[in-house]
Amino acid sequence: MSGFSDVKKIFGGGTTSTARQAGILLSLVAIVLVFQFWTNGLTLTPGNLIAVVNQYSYILILAIGMVMVIIAGHIDLSVGSVAAFTGIIVAKAMADFDLPWPLAIVLGLVVGALIGAWQGFWVAYVGVPAFIVTLAGMLIFRGGNQYIGAATAVPVPEGFTVIGAGYLPEIGPDTGYNNLTLILGFLAVVAIAWREWRSRRTQAEMGSEMVPVWVSIARVVIIGAVVLYAAFLFAGGRVGTSFPVSGLILVALVVAYSFLTRNTIIGRHIYAVGGNSHAAELSGVKSKRVNFFVMMNMSILAGLAGMIFIARAGASGGQDGNGWELDAIAAAFIGGTAVAGGVGTVIGAIIGGLVMAFLNNGLQLVGAGADLVQIVKGLVLLLAVAIDVYNRSQGRFSIIGIFRPKRRNGPSDQTPTPTTGTPDTAKPGAVTVNN
Amino acid sequence: MVDQPVILEMRSITKEFPGVKALSDVSIAVRAGEVHAICGENGAGKSTLMKVLSGVYPYGTYEGQIVYQTEEVRFRDIRSSEAAGIVIIHQELALIPELSITENIFLGNEPGRGGVINWKEAKKRAVQLLARVGLRDDPDTLIKDIGVGKQQLVEIAKALNKDVKLLILDEPTAALNENDSQHLLDLIVGLKGKGIASIIISHKLNEIEQIADSITIIRDGKTIETLDVRGGDVNEDRIIRGMVGRSLQSRFPDRTPHVGEVFFEVKNWTVQHPLVPERLVCKNESFTVRKGEIVGFAGLMGAGRTELAMSIFGRSYGTFVEGQVFKDGKEIQLRNVSEAIDQGLAYVSEDRKSLGLNLLDDIKRSVVSAKLGKISRGQVVDDFKEHAIADEYRKSLRIKTPTVDEGVSKLSGGNQQKVVLAKWMFTDPDLLILDEPTRGIDVGAKFEIYGIIQQLAAQGKGVIVISSELPELIGLSDRIYTIFEGQITNEFTSAEAEPEMLMKSMTSTSKKAEAA
Hints:
The complex is a heterodimer.
Chain A: H1 3-9, H2 16-38, H3 46-71, H4 79-97, H5 101-126, H6 130-149, E1 154-155, H7 162-165, H8 179-206, H9 213-235, H10 245-263, H11 265-275, H12 277-282, H13 287-313, E2 315-316, H14 324-334, H15 346-365, H16 370-393, H17 399-403, H18 430-433
Chain B: E1 6-17, E2 20-31, E3 35-39, H1 46-54, E4 63-68, E5 71-72, H2 78-83, E6 86-89, H3 101-105, E7 112-113, E8 116-117, H4 119-132, H5 148-161, E9 166-170, H6 178-193, E10 197-201, H7 205-211, E11 214-219, E12 222-228, H8 236-244, E13 262-272, E14 280-290, E15 294-298, H9 305-312, E16 319-327, E17 330-332, H10 337-342, E18 345-348, H11 352-356, H12 363-368, E19 376-377, E20 380-381, H13 383-396, H14 413-425, E21 431-435, H15 443-458, E22 462-467, H16 470-476, E23 479-484, E24 487-493, H17 499-507, H18 512-515
Parallel strand pairs in B: 3-10, 3-11, 6-9, 9-10, 15-22, 15-23, 18-21, 21-22
Antiparallel strand pairs in B: 1-2, 1-4, 4-5, 7-8, 11-12, 13-14, 13-16, 16-17, 19-20, 23-24
Helix pairs in contact in B: 4-5, 8-17
Keywords (chain B): ATP-binding, Cell membrane, Membrane, Nucleotide-binding, Repeat, Sugar transport, Translocase, Transport
Domain ABC transporter (chain B): 8-245, 264-510
Membrane topology (chain B): Peripheral membrane protein
């Protein structure tokens, strides 16, 4: 292993998808730094960071669900409409029926789940392509939103706005910072260090290959420093603002869904179905259930995103959520999700979403109009996926080959001795031939 | 026939794929107006040879010479070979189901001027061409609305339209019933009378015996011999001897079988084709497996071996009609794959890349993927256990990789197969069904896989091995069933299994007494 590949490992274990993520992460850092200079330091100010989180948390929440949908080999075009539909129902329930806002949130999640069950049914059990089902859903639920809301804005009560426009409260002594935000930042650093230590310990127990100690330390120090820096920025804003509640919801979801996709059986099954559904079924995976789950889960998250949005806007309207699906899909693809499914991570999609967010934000700060912002976003999406496609055409995941020098003691493919049999006769034989 | 001039000669054709020498110094000579059969086991190199001839593998990618009508030819692609009058009809028909017969016949060859098709002319010629192959169907009929037999004839009509002089048919009757087959064979003989020579590849030796004028036998990518059918006494036995003639070397680890009592039994297993309900892919098949026994299933491609295995393994293929499965004397239900896994069945598919593995995954995740529950607490997968288990298999099966974090797509075929075996061994099966376990694997790795199979049997598990390679089956198995057209035709003990007898039972429904 050369020194360079160790450096790369600071941002990932050296596996294929993390290598891709490391590239995206570097782009994100570069974008933030470029705009930091270009805007004379406006990008990394408390007020701006808080605004970015407030504006993009719901898109990032959608990206979490979207990456799972895409990994399983589907797509969801309906998320914007589902968010708007859920939003209007929740707003109406509070305005017309005086439903208490905590119950209204539950109601919103249930509405999302029902819509998800509807779409999941068509995708998983009838076999209609998700593209079609959700295109239909996009129309149905947009229309539903406008029908129920009669195309007027429905305001939401004060208490409800906390999930979209609320901040961590001020507690403890006056330090000039928001104490709770600082504490959360410190806790996050401790968690990162603990996780690194724990994984090293178990790796040592198993006697498996470990990254050098300095890589681990560098990883904890760099990530920890970034987290602390961000914490001080968020905590140091205008009094009354701090880390937004919607950001907190986002972080909790990212942690939970990262765990779900990486460490649970259902998570494994999502990758298995997206990677090779035939092989998955022959391994006992019930792929219909998996497809149903990802579609349903997406709509629940869309419902949540819709509620956060109307909480921030203070009212539900007929144009809520327009174009969200495209932002969420773009975030997933920029974040290294494979177009054909089977590959992708929640954290990658979040990084991809942040790339879009900071591009958007930075361009606005330097005074670019919405027209230019769209053009740049489009080009970035195209470029990111083009890189992915190019890498695939060069043999799967050759991005690793670019970064990683040839292993000397790599998988010692025995030089295959010439035998009989041709690649043609090694095709799927009897199963397909008779069709 | 011997007096006829040679129309085609392929001289010393050698074709290599990365790591595989598919053809080595193969020569064949076809005379004008004859039906020339090419025989050989699966993987012997027949299809590769035909792809070289038809330009699928263009000049320059093989060594050797093709002399056609006394001139050396160098085909760049299929178009150039077709222009010379050599047309190949593949086993999987190249017709477009949603287009009409006329449209298919003239596809890529449309009559007309300046890009505008003259449909009147096309239809007129289509009717004439159809008449030549004995079809009286409306040329506007869509291909999907006519049977496979007629589709095959449309393919030939399409070839006739191209002014064919040499017709190559790859397993033309594999999907046809007896009537349609006979009609097709008659047509081929009829074309011969009109000066069109044919090369036919077929596993059905009785058909070859019936229509071929000469037979070239290929084995292990080499020409073994050319038999003149009309000149001498060539019969099925003679052909089979040529096809399987290699000796059984000691390619297998030593083993003393310890076979226990019957623990797995399938009775009257009948399954329909998933798309064509009137076709039965398994016809009333019954068999048994004993503890610690390796049972071979011999059959040619398309005989219904995989269909049998997959339909038993949680009904993953076809439509279940009837049949019972007994394990340890009790009837068990295998309605889906997870039930089959829970009942202690494992199926290692014949196509490791599209059915056996998720090529995007790494080794450790692949190994545990068929029984994640075994290393999970609740829903949460213990990834440290996963790593440890995968590493154990890496050592015990000698999977050649630096770590189990490596992606399976980076492994060689043999090592991928070991990962698949590990995946199914991890499910603790009582019965393993291994479908072509050594396909596309080099000799050294084969020996190791044989060793693993024997170990599994030694642990008291039942093992079913499906293979096209008779020497492999004979070398491994304690007992062999032969399958032909969805039926179990015979059963042989390891002592009585001879390649010729097996091949006979694999190509006809004749009983053992006749076969012996």
